[in-house]
Amino acid sequence: LSSLPLQILLYVNGIYYIFYFLATLAMIIYKSQVFSYPDDLLAPDLAVLFLMAILEVPRSYLGFKGNLTEAEAPLGLSLGLTVGSVVLCVYLLLWQTYVLWADVLLNAVLLSAYGLESGLKVMAIAAFVS
User: Fold this and answer.
1) What is the mean pLDDT of residues 99-105?
2) 10 touches 67 (CB < 8 A)
3) What DSSP letter does each residue of 16-31 carry, written as one string?
4) Which listed site, 15, 67, 92, 120, has its alpha carbon 20 to 30 Å from 5?
5) What is the pLDDT of residues 74-96, one digit of tens each?
6) pLDDT (tens digit, 9 = 90+) per residue, 31-90?
7) Closest alpha carbon to 78 in 103, 51, 98, 60
8) What angle do CA 66, 67, 69 make, to 5 degrees?
9) Which stretch of DSSP H or E encloses residue 94?
10) How far is CA 37 from the centre of its chain?
């Protein structure tokens, strides 16, 4: 009953997130050098990025584990962590100090992947329960 599309998306999203993290970190460094980035606002933007990276590890692990073992609980926890990651992603999309077009593009792709992944997780949980 494991979902192959979910497993593939979890893998691809893991690879994309590494790129996303490095690109967003590079853009924050770039913005802090090029623009007059207020020092008191640089720390929250970096904290959100690093908190998102910390959430990504258990989110992906629980997604992989729950799908492969056909267990609802790890997939449900992964789904809950996905909600937290979406909130942090929306912060980086809308409320960080400076938002470049590259930020919009990176966050839109990540939010789309989170949405598709969440739908597949819900379908997998429904299949495991029945």
Assistant:
1) 97
2) yes
3) HHHHHHHHHHHHHHHH
4) 92
5) 999 999 999 999 999 999 999 99
6) 999 998 888 999 999 999 999 999 999 999 999 999 999 999 999 999 999 999 999 999
7) 60
8) 65
9) none
10) 25
